[in-house]
Amino acid sequence: MNFKFFIGTKVLFGENCVTENKNEFKKFGKRAFVVTGKNSGKLSGALDDVAGVLENLGIDYYIFDRVENNPSLENVNEAGREARTFKADFIIGIGGGSPLDASKAVSVLAVNHIEPKELYSNVFINKPLPIIAIPTTAGTGSEVTPYSILTRRDLNTKMSFGNEDTFPQIAFEDARYTYDLPSNVTIDTAVDAFCHAMEGYLSRRSTPASDVLAQEAITIFGQCINPLINGQLDPYVREKLMYMAMLGGMVISHTGTTIIHGMGYSLTYFKDLPHGRANGLFIKEYLKFNYREASGKIDRMLELLGIAGIDEFGELLEKMLNYNCTFTEDELKQYASLTMKQKSTTYNIRTAAKQDLFEIMIKSLKAQ
Amino acid sequence: MNFKFFIGTKVLFGENCVTENKNEFKKFGKRAFVVTGKNSGKLSGALDDVAGVLENLGIDYYIFDRVENNPSLENVNEAGREARTFKADFIIGIGGGSPLDASKAVSVLAVNHIEPKELYSNVFINKPLPIIAIPTTAGTGSEVTPYSILTRRDLNTKMSFGNEDTFPQIAFEDARYTYDLPSNVTIDTAVDAFCHAMEGYLSRRSTPASDVLAQEAITIFGQCINPLINGQLDPYVREKLMYMAMLGGMVISHTGTTIIHGMGYSLTYFKDLPHGRANGLFIKEYLKFNYREASGKIDRMLELLGIAGIDEFGELLEKMLNYNCTFTEDELKQYASLTMKQKSTTYNIRTAAKQDLFEIMIKSLKAQ
């Protein structure tokens, strides 16, 4: 056994956790810079809760609500500049993966006058501002990871940075904020969270402790498959999904992701497929590809899911996920090349060559 | 679901973790105050490893090696005074539970001129110094908890303090430091770690996330029962025990302990029974007492342990644990009274009155 275990985030999980733990906001200063998207913070009710608490505590705040979907370096740079001008003491990220990931970049850029590309050095002269993260989807797990995944227009893909100082200090996890999410978004994000647990479990970097968290997340996903397919998204299921997403985030904080995420980035970048859906399309072929190296763990995973085999799992996923874009073989070759450049590809349990990735994609996507 | 999850400690686990991660020491300053006992740091080799690293990095250090077994307020006060005089930047605790717990008190007292009794207020004007914790037993889990359990001579018992700032920043967990521990110490400490997992699992404060960690620890203990009884303490078993102890610490960081620890404190205080052994003597009757309220969880625990029932578990524990002191009924009544004063008693899954505690003790200890 040889491992590191660290989760730099304190999680406060449960209904009304923001208002019930409002004193947590006081520790970080008097000026809060809120990072969110156009809609999610408002529609979920999270922004209202936060604004109420900040006003009650006499904390000044500024709302930056222009985080893009899959935020670019240019987008976070703009937010970072505004946070600097505002002289923020701390950052509050509210939303799905995009605003939460953006908030980490903002926390660095607010106190470091660097080009946004330099984020990828992961070495910052001034310590990033403290971050409070409030997810409004149950998927990304970004609220408990140090990772910030940003779109690199210069490299035609998404790429992540993060170090121990970019863990949010606090995550408030209230499943109420996800109650109104439509079924397709709920599925996409749930599948993303499941991929975090699965890819972490089957990563070369998996550890005894990350496996414990991964197995719990996998078990919970198994309990949610039918509700997700049938749209039975009651508060009880919503809460389970949020718990699973948190666990998935804790897993990848230790293991990172592997080839599924790498391939998925291309589908999101070039075809605008939602991140979780893009990942989910590859699960069946990914498991078949890896079975040779990890049959024991994959069998255990299926057992925890309550599913008889990989093909049955594939059928269930097909019921959840659909897409209506087409791919040429040349496109998939390009995606395979890009995936080979992701460091996470090297952590896949079975070594994957470019041709392997191409074959996984062609089997998964029925290219024309 | 409504829970908090926070482990303020980064764990570096594995052979040679101190030397292989020596840069971690650099972050905390140039003056290290080492808190350890008379023997454990030296005999385990941990102190040598640490001294080597500090010298290599040019960090000045001072070794306080006078931590008592079950350290008193007076003892930590003396160490705190010396740390202040030394102008320590950070504290390194090396040893079993006693030095690690003492190091937390020292980290507070080094920067706060308070009476040691005021530690129990858990509010400190100056933030405690950072702590690096290096266990040389696999039991306490103190390396990943904020708790410091100190002997209160004024109250005839042991009592704990701690807040989020007294989590060690880093725990180095190298099972090599436990290789030479005698069998009885290994058993005592392992049983203590198991009690952390079990009491946390059966606590009113248990959470979904703490249960995941507890179940893993319980599973590992099940794998170690025969090796512990037979003295087959090879490096592989030592590593498992250390991993279990870490998990147990993470569990009680969320749940605290319950009546076993409360009763055990008296046996240690008045009869000098080792802490883990004192706890272990109560396990069988504790489970019988709680079965009415927690049959599902207790059955699950026995299943994870690979044991058919409570009585069989009691027999196995009897093979591990022995003691040769006697108790009068009056003594046990006094212990029951003292246990009722421990806050942890209120977290027991089945409400325990003084008479209940007395009966658990009399059945467990065959009083004369």
Would you spell out the secondary-structure blueprint of this structure?
The structure is a homodimer of 368-residue chains.
Chain A: E1 3-5, E2 10-14, H1 17-20, H2 23-26, E3 31-37, H3 40-44, H4 46-57, E4 60-67, H5 73-86, E5 90-95, H6 97-109, E6 131-135, E7 148-152, E8 157-161, E9 170-173, H7 183-201, H8 208-230, H9 235-255, H10 259-271, H11 275-280, H12 283-305, H13 310-320, H14 329-340, H15 354-365
Parallel strand pairs in A: 2-9, 3-4, 3-5, 5-6, 6-9
Antiparallel strand pairs in A: 7-8
Helix pairs in contact in A: 5-6, 7-8, 7-9, 8-9, 10-14, 12-13, 12-15, 14-15
Features:
6-stranded parallel β-sheet, 368 residues, alpha/beta, homodimer, two-stranded antiparallel ribbon
Give your account of this protein's structure:
Two copies of one chain form a homodimer. With 368 residues, the first copy, chain A, is of the alpha/beta class. Chain A has helices at 17-20, 23-26, 40-44, 46-57, 73-86, 97-109, 183-201, 208-230, 235-255, 259-271, 275-280, 283-305, 310-320, 329-340, 354-365; strands at residues 3-5, 10-14, 31-37, 60-67, 90-95, 131-135, 148-152, 157-161, 170-173. Chain A has a six-stranded parallel sheet, sandwiched between helices. A two-stranded antiparallel sheet of chain A has the order 7-8. Chain A binds chain B through residues 1-15, 17, 164, 208-209, 212-213, 216, 239, 243, 246-247, and chain B through 1-15, 17, 164, 208-209, 212-213, 216, 239, 243, 246-247.
